[in-house]
C-alpha cells in the first residue's frame, strides 16, 4: 500500500506549465510559425504577419499577429508540435482603430478539437473600440488543435498573448523523481 501511495505522489509531481505565446520571435511573415513548442498556421491562404508599433501599446507586447482576418474564413490554427494535448486559457484580440465605421459585427469563432475527437466551440464579439480585449475561456481542455477564425468580412484585428497550459515535465521534476526513487530504494534496502 505504501508503494502505491509513493508511486501516485511521484506521478502527481509532473507539472503543468502555462505558456504565453506572445509572438516576440516573429520578425517577418511566417507560415507556419513556431513558439514555445506550439505551431501556428494561417488557414485559407492567409499569412501570419507581425503587427508592430501602436498595436504593441494595446496588447502589452511589442508584436501581435495579423492573420489576414480581413477576408472571410481566414484564421489561425494552433497545435502542439509534439501532438500532445493542451488547454487554452485565454487570448487577446487587438483592434488598432475603432471599428464603429465598419459594416457588420466583429465576431470571431474559437473552435477546438479534443483528444477524444469531440469539438468545443464559442463565439466572441469585440467591442469595436481601439485596444486589446482579453477573452478567458472555460471548457477548452485536452485539445489537439484550436482554430481562431473571423465571422464576417473585414475584421482588421490581430491576436496576441495566447495562454496555453500543457503538461511539461521540468528537469527539476525529473531530478526530484529520481532522488525520490533512490531514497525509496535505500529505505527498502535498510529494512531488509
TrEMBL record:
<dbReference type="Pfam" id="PF07589">
    <property type="entry name" value="PEP-CTERM"/>
</dbReference>
<feature type="domain" description="Ice-binding protein C-terminal">
    <location>
        <begin position="167"/>
        <end position="191"/>
    </location>
</feature>
<feature type="signal peptide">
    <location>
        <begin position="1"/>
        <end position="18"/>
    </location>
</feature>
<dbReference type="InterPro" id="IPR013424">
    <property type="entry name" value="Ice-binding_C"/>
</dbReference>
<protein>
    <recommendedName>
        <fullName>Ice-binding protein C-terminal domain-containing protein</fullName>
    </recommendedName>
</protein>
<keyword id="KW-0732">Signal</keyword>
Amino acid at each position: 500500500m505504501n508503494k502505491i501511495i509513493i508511486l501516485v505522489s511521484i506521478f502527481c509531481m509532473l507539472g503543468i506549465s502555462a505558456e504565453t505565446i506572445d509572438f516576440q520571435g516573429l520578425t517577418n511573415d511566417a507560415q507556419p510559425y513556431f513558439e514555445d513548442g506550439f505551431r501556428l498556421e494561417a488557414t485559407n491562404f492567409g499569412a501570419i504577419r507581425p503587427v508592430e508599433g501602436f498595436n504593441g501599446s494595446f496588447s502589452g507586447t511589442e508584436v501581435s499577429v495579423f492573420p489576414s482576418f480581413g477576408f472571410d474564413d481566414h484564421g489561425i490554427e494552433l497545435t502542439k508540435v509534439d501532438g500532445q494535448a493542451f488547454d487554452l486559457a485565454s487570448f487577446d484580440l487587438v483592434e488598432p482603430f475603432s471599428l464603429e465605421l465598419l459594416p457588420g459585427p466583429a465576431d470571431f469563432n474559437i473552435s477546438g478539437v479534443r483528444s477524444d475527437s469531440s469539438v468545443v466551440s464559442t463565439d466572441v464579439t469585440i467591442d469595436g473600440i481601439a485596444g486589446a480585449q482579453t477573452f478567458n475561456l472555460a471548457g477548452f481542455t485536452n485539445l489537439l488543435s484550436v482554430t481562431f477564425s473571423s465571422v464576417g468580412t473585414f475584421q482588421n484585428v490581430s491576436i496576441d498573448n495566447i495562454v496555453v497550459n500543457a503538461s511539461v515535465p521540468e528537469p527539476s521534476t525529473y531530478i526530484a523523481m529520481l532522488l525520490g526513487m533512490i531514497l525509496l530504494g535505500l529505505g527498502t534496502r535498510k529494512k531488509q
